[in-house]
Design brief:
By secondary structure, this protein is an alpha+beta fold. It has eight helices and 15 strands. The chain starts with 10 loop residues before the first helix and ends with a strand.
Length: 401
């Protein structure tokens, strides 16, 4: 295994390293607060332990500075853990194994740890081992259960057959002919089947801002994109079930989202905050990292004749304080069912987005008059089911995208 200083990393690996550095930083904060039993810390430890259960290092088999950062953050916790906390039924044996590996492979991780500073780990003290599943025995058990169920079903069928009245005893000829009076049943002429009519195509949903899937998102962490100076890479929970475009972080199903906000919004303001996200745009790769949603933000409207230099200011759209990740938000007066994934060829987002704006009272709203294809007028504020309004801090009459 090559040392960290000799390794090269792909953009995806660099992004993962940044995510683990953020996780290590959060663990370190809890450790400094002596909160080893903090309820907020346990989901983080559960995630790390599960991740390491099938990996030698955080990246799999490749060491990185993320392993060193995690070691530094986790060391005070492990040194204080009881044997049960380390390797008991509810312990973290994979975290302990990773820590012992890092501290005893200094050349691999470009780390210097004196013997006095090493956490004493007794590799023979394993308090709980999950019982292995005997695949052959399990298969045999299922086979026996299936055979028993089939036998029970067959016996029931036989009993049912013996209890049915025999209607053929008094008229064998009729039975032979297939009719009670013994007469053969005339064959029916086959009717020609009418050709199947092709199904009419489903009517297209009328153009509306309700076609856009807007939800409350919770940014659990955000890091700088390793290959793009203008991008942040955020891990955002937005109420999804587990799927192809999701990942699990701290026990929550999340999407990875790239946003061009680096240099416009400080990174610390992107951490652990609620935002509004567009969830049904087609995922795209941004400098090697797949982005599966978009964070809504407001910026000043460019006056006629001016050029949009994208230099800001920029303000994130904030949902109501009591809103939860995954809550639907919609423009008042335009509530409806959003599309699963917007078809890029139909340009729904590009057509509707020019109507996204902010009002004089700093509410995010949709101005129908700005979308001539709708043929309507009126302004509807962006609200939750409970009526809470999504807002921005200071920008009035802004562009929201």
């Amino acid at each position: 295994m090559q040392a960290v200083s000799s390794q090269t990393y792909t953009p995806t690996e660099e992004a993962e390293i940044q995510q683990w550095l953020t996780t290590a930083s959060r663990v370190e904060e809890h450790a400094k607060a002596n909160s080893t039993n903090d309820a907020q810390l346990r989901p983080i430890l559960d995630t790390v332990n599960t991740h390491l259960s099938t990996r030698t290092t955080l990246l799999g088999n490749k060491p990185s500075r993320a392993d060193t950062a995690l070691y530094a953050a986790i060391r005070p916790l492990v040194s204080a853990w009881s044997p049960d906390q380390r390797t008991g039924e509810n312990g973290y044996p994979h975290i302990v194994r990773h820590l012992d590996f890092v501290q005893n492979a200094p050349s691999t991780f470009d780390l210097t740890v004196s013997d006095a500073d090493k956490v004493a780990v007794d590799l023979d003290d394993v308090r709980y081992v999950k019982p292995p599943v005997d695949a052959k025995a399990e298969k045999e058990r299922l086979k026996k259960e299936k055979a028993a169920a089939a036998a029970a079903g067959g016996a029931g069928a036989a009993d049912g057959a013996s209890s049915l009245p025999d209607r053929t005893k008094n008229n064998k000829a009729g039975a032979a002919a297939g009719q009670p009076d013994g007469k053969a049943k005339p064959k029916k002429e086959k009717k020609e089947k009418a050709p199947k009519q092709p199904k009419a195509p489903a009517a297209a949903a009328p153009l509306s801002p309700s076609l856009i899937d807007l939800r409350v998102g919770h940014i659990l962490k955000a890091v700088k994109h390793p290959e793009a100076d203008s991008l942040y890479v955020s891990t955002i929970a937005m109420g999804d079930p587990a799927g192809d475009d999701t990942t699990e972080y701290e026990g929550q199903v999340c999407r990875t989202v790239c946003s061009g906000l680096n240099g416009l919004i400080p990174l610390e303001e992107m951490q652990d905050r609620k935002v509004v996200v567009v969830c049904n745009l087609k995922p795209v790769k941004m400098r090697g990292i797949k982005s599966s949603a978009m964070v809504l933000a407001a910026s000043p409207r460019v006056k006629e004749g001016e050029v949009d230099d994208h230099k800001g200011p920029v303000e994130l759209v904030a949902p109501p304080a009591d809103a939860k990740a995954g809550d639907r938000v919609f423009f008042d007066g335009w509530k409806g069912t959003p599309e699963g994934v917007l078809n890029p060829k139909k340009k729904v987002w590009e057509t509707i987005q020019p109507g996204f704006t902010t009002t004089d009272d700093l509410a995010v709203a949709f101005d129908a008059a700005a979308v001539k294809e709708l043929g309507k007028e009126g302004v509807g504020k962006l609200v939750t089911e409970s009526g809470g309004v999504c807002t921005v801090p200071t920008l009035k009459g802004a562009v929201v995208r």
